[in-house]
User: Which sequence fits this backbone?
C-alpha cells in the first residue's frame, strides 16, 4: 500500500435541471468574464448553449463564445482560445460539452496563465504553475475530465497526442444532468461506457500497493457501468441508467479508484493515444480495440488481479486454474464489448494499419512514455509493437 | 433517484509520515496565525503535538494552542476557543486529534466568523454564513469529520447534544497517517469501526431514491471495514488494516455513500445523541447498543434494502423469505459487534436507564428532530421510546 494524495475539489451538481444553476455557480466561484467553450453543433441544435447564454445574460455575466472543439481536440484551437481570452480579459472558462470541450478549455486555461508555449506542458518540457478557473456543463459521460486533473491535446503537426495533468485544472464545478446525454447516438454512448470502465481498469491492473477498499469500490463501479451499458444499448432514454453511467464517469477518473496503489498501468491509454493521433478514432472505441490484445500480452505478469477481476467484476466462476480464470475474464470483457457494439481489434475499429504504421505508433508511444511504462507488465517499444500487431484482427 | 450535490474539497494526504507536511499545507491554504486545537493528553504524550509545533516553528508560522476537547465536545470549550481566536487574531484552525477535536474546532470556526451565539446554529435558530479555514491531523478513524460538513457539540446546561452541517466547515486539508492510530485501545478502535459503518448504514437504509453505484460503493466499503475491524481485534498494529479503516472512515461520511438517495435515515444517530448527551458514552458504542433494536423495529418497512444488505454485506444466504433473510442480516451485525467487543444493548453499554430516563431521551430526541424523522421508517416520539425500551437488554 502506497501513500497517496486525494484531492477532488470540484463541486458537483447532479440531476435534472441542474444546468439552470450555471450562472449562480460561475458567480460563486468569482467568474466575471467568461469564455464559453464548446464542440460541434449539437449543443447549439439542442438549445443548451442558448439556455446557458440566456442564464448568463440574466445574471449580468459577460461572456464570449468559442466553438469547434473536436474529439482529440486540436492545439490550433487551443491557441485561438488563449488569444481570445487574453484579448477579452476572460477570467473564467465554461466548457459546455464532453471531454473534448473540457480538455480543450483546460489547455486554454493553462495557456492564459502560464508564460510561453502551452504545448511545452504536453511535451514534458515544463510544469504549469496555475490555470484559469473552469466550470463544466457536461453533455457526454466518458472522459471524467469534469472532475479529473488531466487533459489530452493533439498537435496537428506530426499528429502527436499528449496528456498533461495537474490539480490546477480540476474544474471548480461540474453540472451533471443525465438528461443532457439522452440523445447521444448508441455508438458514442458505448464509447463513453468503455472509456469510463477503462479509467478504473487502468488503475486496477497493477502490481503495486493495492488497497482492499479501493478494489471493492472499483469493482462495484465496474459492475454498475457494465450492467447499465447493456441497458442503454436497448433503452437509450433510460434516465436511471444514464445517471448511473454519468456519475460512474466522474468517479472513475477523479482518483477514487486508484487510492493506495502505484498509480496504475495506463498502457492501453498510451497505446490508444497513438491510434487516436494517427487515425482520429473515437477514444473509447480505440481503447476497446486495443485492450484485449494488451490483456493477453500482460495477464500472466499480473495474474492475481486478472483472476480477481474475472470473478468479482465479470462474474466468471473460478475454474481452479488462475490462468484459465483470468483468460475467461478477458474473454468476458471482449464479449461485453461486442454486445455494446464496440470493436475488439483494429480491423473492427476500421483501421487498416500497415506494418510501418504499427512501427511508427510503437516508436511514438515508447517516446511518449519515456522509453518504457506499465505496472501490470513493463512494456518497451518491442512489446508495444507486438500488442499493436496482435490487435490487427 | 434524487438530484444531489457532491462537494468534498478537502485535500487528503494519506500514509506514513504525512504529518510532516502540516506546516506546508497550512501555508498553502493561507494560514498565518493558527489555533492548534486538541483533546486529551495522548497527542502530548505521543509527541505528535510537539512534532507539529516544531514544524510550525521551523516554517515561521505563529500559533496558539488549546487542549481539552473531550468526547461529545463541550460548548464551554468552544466559547473559550472563540475568545482565544478573537484575542489572538487567529486566521486558521488546526485540529490535532479525532472527531472531538475536529468538531470542537469547527464550532470555534463558526463562532469566530459569525455574529451572535454559536449555539444558535446547533439549536436550529440560524444558519452559518462562513467558517474559519480548518486543517486536520487525524489520530482516530471514526467520525469522518476530517472530510465531512458536520459537527456535533454538547451543551452542558441540560446535556443537549446537537449537530450542525454546512460546507463552510469542510476541512481544507486532512492528514491521515494510519500509524498515528496504532496505539489506540481496542475499545476505541472498535468504537471507530462501528461509527464508520454506521455513517454508511444510515445512508443505506432508506426508502427513497437509491442509486446502484452508490449501493455498490457502500456495500464494498462496509465489507472492507467489517473484515479489517476483525483483523484489528487480534492484530491492532496491522498497518494495512489500520489504513483500510482510516480511509473508509473519511469516505463513509464525506457524502460519497449517499449520492442519489433521500439523504438517509439517521435515526440511530439521533437516538444515540440523546444517550451521549445524558450518559457521556462513547459514540460508536452507543450506536452499536441502539442499532439492533432500531433495525428490528423498522426492517419490515424497508425490507428490500435490509435483504440486500444481509446478502451483499453480511454474506447471509438468501433463505427464500425476505423477512427471514433480513433478520439474519441484523443478527449477523449483532454477532459482528459482539466479536469486536461492542455492546448490543444499553445494559452491555453500562447504562442503567429508568423508564423516566427513556421517556426523557425520547422526548428530547423527538424535539431535536422536529417531531418525527426517519427514511427506513418514520419515527415519532412513541416509536423512539419503544426502541429505547427494546434496547435495554
Assistant:
Amino acid at each position: 500500500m502506497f501513500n497517496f494524495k486525494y484531492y477532488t475539489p470540484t463541486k458537483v451538481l447532479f440531476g435534472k435541471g441542474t444546468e439552470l444553476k450555471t450562472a449562480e455557480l460561475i458567480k460563486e466561484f468569482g467568474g466575471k468574464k467568461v469564455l464559453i467553450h464548446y464542440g460541434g453543433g449539437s449543443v447549439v441544435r439542442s438549445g443548451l448553449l442558448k439556455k446557458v447564454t440566456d442564464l448568463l445574460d440574466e445574471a449580468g455575466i459577460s461572456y464570449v463564445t468559442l466553438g469547434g472543439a473536436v474529439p482529440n481536440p486540436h492545439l490550433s484551437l487551443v491557441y485561438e482560445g488563449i488569444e481570445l481570452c487574453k484579448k477579452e480579459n476572460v477570467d473564467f472558462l465554461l466548457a459546455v460539452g464532453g471531454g473534448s470541450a473540457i480538455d480543450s478549455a483546460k489547455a486554454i486555461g493553462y495557456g492564459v496563465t502560464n508564460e510561453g508555449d502551452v504545448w511545452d506542458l504536453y511535451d514534458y518540457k515544463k510544469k504549469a504553475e496555475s490555470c484559469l478557473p473552469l466550470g463544466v456543463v457536461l453533455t457526454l459521460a466518458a472522459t471524467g475530465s469534469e472532475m479529473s486533473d488531466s487533459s489530452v491535446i493533439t498537435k496537428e503537426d506530426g499528429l502527436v497526442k499528449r496528456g498533461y495533468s495537474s490539480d490546477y485544472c480540476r474544474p471548480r464545478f461540474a453540472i451533471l444532468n443525465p438528461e443532457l446525454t439522452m440523445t447521444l447516438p448508441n455508438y458514442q454512448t458505448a464509447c463513453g461506457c468503455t472509456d469510463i470502465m477503462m479509467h478504473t481498469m487502468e488503475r486496477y491492473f497493477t502490481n503495486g500497493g493495492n488497497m482492499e477498499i479501493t478494489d471493492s469500490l472499483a469493482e462495484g463501479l465496474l459492475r454498475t457501468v457494465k450492467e447499465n451499458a447493456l441497458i442503454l444499448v436497448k433503452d437509450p432514454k433510460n434516465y436511471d441508467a444514464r445517471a448511473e453511467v454519468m456519475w460512474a464517469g466522474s468517479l472513475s477518473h477523479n482518483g477514487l479508484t486508484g487510492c493506495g496503489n502505484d498509480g496504475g498501468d495506463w498502457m492501453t491509454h498510451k497505446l490508444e493515444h497513438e491510434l487516436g493521433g494517427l487515425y482520429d478514432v473515437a477514444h473509447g472505441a480505440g481503447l476497446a480495440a486495443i485492450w484485449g490484445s494488451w490483456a493477453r500480452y500482460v495477464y500472466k505478469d499480473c495474474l492475481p488481479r486478472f483472476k480477481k477481476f474475472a470473478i468479482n467484476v465479470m462474474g466468471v466462476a473460478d475454474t481452479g486454474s488462475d490462468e484459465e480464470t483470468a483468460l475467461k475474464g478477458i474473454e468476458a470483457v471482449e464479449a461485453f464489448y461486442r454486445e455494446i457494439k464496440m470493436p475488439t481489434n483494429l480491423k473492427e475499429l476500421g483501421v487498416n494499419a500497415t506494418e510501418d504504421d504499427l512501427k511508427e505508433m510503437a516508436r511514438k508511444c515508447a517516446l511518449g512514455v519515456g522509453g518504457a511504462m506499465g505496472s501490470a507488465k513493463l512494456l518497451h517499444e518491442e512489446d508495444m509493437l507486438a500488442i499493436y500487431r496482435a490487435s490487427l484482427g
Observations:
- The first strand of chain A starts at residue 4 and ends at 14.
- Chain A has a mean pLDDT of 96.
